[in-house]
Every structure is written in structure tokens, then in C-alpha cells.
């Protein structure tokens, strides 16, 4: 569709803060594809009704909280990856038929690779929602062990089903976790939910630096606004490395544009062009 205009929107609640409109307009501008893209408030339970009323007016939607799991109940074609991780962030219309996809995982991995991180021994994922499922599914290919710290055991089974290769464990939430055994921590919780964990950071990083493999874990915080989070600030103050959630937003948006356009995109070239725009918007 390189010579065609397209119309999209990000759906969720709240979305007034979303950088997705800026991101998608910037990506498609680089691709020389005219695009109309906006943020639309759709609350939990409202996705089916919204799609029925608006499906003829749009070419694709980006889905954010709280719709990533709700989307699986739609009567649309569902990508096998979405079935496995039970989470989706992209709805695309092709020849009048809608299909459901997830680009969160590839966005997460591309962001890690861009920062020079490709393989991990042991990873701790904070949170057990839709984003956590996509992250766990992506980590299955690059981590030996994956642990999830969640507040309810009811999500354990679906998270474990997203893993086919790595060793998986589900841990009940603790406000004083030990980060020492891990070389990557991924915070997928809503803004503010992980603030209480900040008190555990300094001791864990100090112990990590004294360990035999002098391993200092990387924190990947999927939140990008407000930034820095309390957890990220404490991690940085303790000498640790932090990857901002805007990187995942950037790369998953490029992956969505690849699906929509049908083109094979140069992720790094696009990321280098668009990253300064996102950084400026976040200041």
C-alpha cells in the first residue's frame, strides 16, 4: 500500500498521554505514506462495540491497556503468536477482514538488541498482564530462565503457556524482592505500581557487583511517561543500566507499520530517524 493513504488510531483508556499518534505519523511520513492517526478513548468492555461502529472507517488500530486481552474475544482472524501469549496490540483490516496481531514482543527484543543485549541467563518480569505475556513470549527465545512476579496466581497458567523452551516460574508478589539472581528485570506494571520495589534496588545491585560474575542487572521499564519512574531513578542512582519504555514503543510501532504497509522495513534506520522526535516530545 505504498501509494495509498491509511487511517489508524490507538485505542485504550487512558490514551490522552499516548505518543502513538506522533510515532505513527512520523513513521509513515518517512515511508511516504499519507496517514491519519489519532488517540481514541475506549474503556474496558467497549472494544467490540467500537469496532462494530467504526470498522468501515479505519485500516488499523493499535491497542493498549486495558484492551490487549479483551481483543481476543473479537470475531477476527487471530495470529498464532497471539493465541500463544493471549495478548494483542494490533488490529489490521485486509480485504474487509480484520486480523489480530502482537508487535510488543518484537518491539521489546529490538529495543534490547539496539542497546546491545541479546541473551540472558535469568530474567524477572514484574507484573502479569497483557504486556507481561508478550514479554515472556519474546524472552522464551533469548533467556534460559524466566520468572514472573505477580499479584494473583490465576495468571500463572496463561503466562507459562507462553513459554515453550525456557525454564519458567511464577512468584507471588513481594514488596522486597531479591533482584540479585537476575541479569534482566522487566517492569510491565502500570505507572506507580512498582514504586514500592525501589527500596530493594541498592542492596541487590551492590550484591550483584560483588558476585563471582560481577553481574549488574539491566532494568527495562516499559513505562515511558512519566519518566523516570521511581524504580528507574533508584536503579540509575545505584549505578545500574536502565532502558526506557519509549524504545519498546518505538520498535513495536515500526513493526505495526511493517504489517500495515506490507513492506520490509529497515528498523534501525527508521528508529534513528524517529527516536529524536520521541525524545523531544518526552522532555
From TrEMBL:
An annotated Gene Ontology molecular function: shikimate 3-dehydrogenase (NADP+) activity
A biological process from GO: chorismate biosynthetic process
Gene3D superfamilies found in the cross-reference section: Leucine Dehydrogenase, chain A, domain 1 (3.40.50.10860), NAD(P)-binding Rossmann-like Domain (3.40.50.720)
Shikimate dehydrogenase substrate binding N-terminal domain mapped to chain residues: 10-91
GO CC annotations, alphabetized: cytosol
Pfam families: Shikimate_dh_N
InterPro entries linked: Aminoacid_DH-like_N_sf, NAD(P)-bd_dom_sf, Shikimate_DH-bd_N, Shikimate_DH_fam
Protein name: Unannotated protein
Organism whose genome encodes this protein: freshwater metagenome
